[in-house]
Fold:
Amino acid sequence: MLRSVLFKNFVKFEKYQVMDFSSDGPFILIGENGSGKSSVLEGIRRCLKLKLSTSMSSIFDTKTMSYFICTAETAGLQDEKNVIFGIVAMPKKGAMPKIGNELLNQSSLFWFYKFAFSKDDQIFIDLISSSEVSEGEVELIVSNSYTCSDGAFIKAVLNPKPKEHDIETCIDSIFGNLYTDQTPCSDKLGQLLCDLTKQFVLTFPLRSIGPLQWSESTRITSAWRKENYNEAEKRCEIIKHFLEDNGETFDKDKEKEYFQHLTQIENYDFTLEGGKISLPKGFALLKTPEGILEAKAFSILISSKQYRTILLEEPDRGMHPQILDRMIEIIHQEKDKKRVILTTHRKAFITPWTVSDTFIFKHTKANKETRIVSGTDLFTNRKDGSMNKKALLTSHNIPDILFASKVLFYEGLSEHLFLGELRSQILAGTDSVTSGVFEDDKVEANKRLKKSLMEYTLVCMNGRDNQTFYHNISKKLGLDFLILLDKDILYKQLEKEKRKNRIKMETRDELATKREEYLKEKNVFFWFDGAIEDMVQAMCKKNQGLKDKLAEQKMEFPPEVRECTSNGPKLFLHKGIKKVHITESVKLLLGYCRLEDDLAELIKKFV
Structure:
């Protein structure tokens, strides 16, 4: 089973990354499209037998070494327990060396190597080059082979916390001193990697142009329909391979049990007739729901007798959330025999029981490089490995944060209703919706506002006591975030400074200075007048017409003087309030909003 990977300067990853797969899993890779999730699976595939690759992976910085190293715990593989294998690309120095009489045609910048350690600390190394076999088709070939010993490399890789300096010192020592005129060794690396590859399986979604049929499609003829059915049958390679197996590779009783548990359906019996996949009368392969086909493929792979590491790219397409829950159950049942690593865009996979084995892929602001944040670092206590209690209590919000690019945090339900409607009206409205918010170039400012708001995820903290927890998570993830709080956050701060009474004496300018400090230091924005209800009250004091119209929408106002923000009615939470009242109230507040209002100040923070 795969235990860990470490890599640097590989595809989208400029900096050193380590991913630990030593716990039970499943291991879940999440992130934006193009953030590098598939690149990690690609890196693992590159490290296995050569025939799985038809090209070399790209390198982020062409001036320095690149590497991707895997550690696996194997069963029955040359009596090995831990096998270290990987790929290395070393920048060429000086004149380009030759292989025979021909220059390497793979690259003018790097030497590419594959390697693996044997049980006696020997390292087998192959120098890889490419050969164009036809137009657009490339074949990777072994140009030369080497063998050497290096116990320090093994020690550095197997360190529970492998250090970048130690790894690169060993790589430079070994791969920086190889010469193409050395005597070639036998193909021991190829044999070792072929045996190792048998314990791995990877899936890749079939990507094509125009996968959807639509109402304007040309009517499908009988011949075309038959061709589509044949194409569907050809694409179900996993199912067909399973049906052709005689029980040597797959446990068919276990597969049947798992498939029925996943789908809760008993009548989807796949059989092989005349060399083609067949279903019971009334069912057709082409019309089988995608989620059922994905569930079938998963149940087949997890029931394998030889696959110990299963790498799945988006295995959840078309699946009902309950099927995903059952999939995780099955993975836990197989935890001692199988290591499952998958990529997904589904929040349903992220639960208090899976979040510590989740890896979040985040683009950095400075460039297109990606960094990986481990759920273990985010949500577990380093001392005893237990889950952070706040993570359990707020687990319903965690998936939203992990998938977000920007987050607006707020305290409670009133803010939830107000901010959700505010965001919706600004995004759907014309430039005039925010005409009172901006002073200059209102059209351009409104465009920037809409673009920014589209990137924001709204998250309720269920009280301000959780703000430190959310602040720390956002910082670790490198998120842009803003925390919206009532002004009584100042009381807590002033209590520490033993100046509690001063809050009532501060001028608006002093409050503005204090708020800017909070924004800069803590990403906190607080309402000048108290809570969100007081913000509305302050706007109504300036305009009786607004107050009268809000009253028509069943708006209730807090007392003029409140000792604390918990006194009085809460915005939109009183009896009789309906969705239409919330919509019209927010529309009125936006329409009456002016530059000097606190609401305008909040809106401008998103631009």
Remarks:
- Residues 404-604 form one domain.
- Confidence is low (pLDDT under 50) at residues 95-106.
